């Protein structure tokens, strides 16, 4: 059994489409979707290229998760948390 992490560009509407396309793969055990960081963790016996191909067929932009994605996600979240305009928090 292997775990595959993907970065999928999506909005909340696309989560249903993502789960539907992954449900067609019989070798998968578990699918975890984190909409905030756009990270999808898939656990099962399917090959990682087969999983990526299925997600891309559904019309979603996807790539394997990398360390750069972790750094960019941390930077973006800290930038938005510290964003101020005339001493008022925007978010």
TrEMBL record:
Identify the InterPro entries for this entry. HMA_dom, HMA_dom_sf
- List localization entries: Membrane
For this protein, the record's Pfam families field holds: HMA
PROSITE patterns referenced in this protein's UniProt entry, alphabetically: HMA_2
User: What membrane topology term does the record carry?
Assistant: Peripheral membrane protein
- UniProt domain HMA: residue ranges: 1-63
Q: What is this protein called?
A: HMA domain-containing protein
Species of origin reads Rehmannia glutinosa
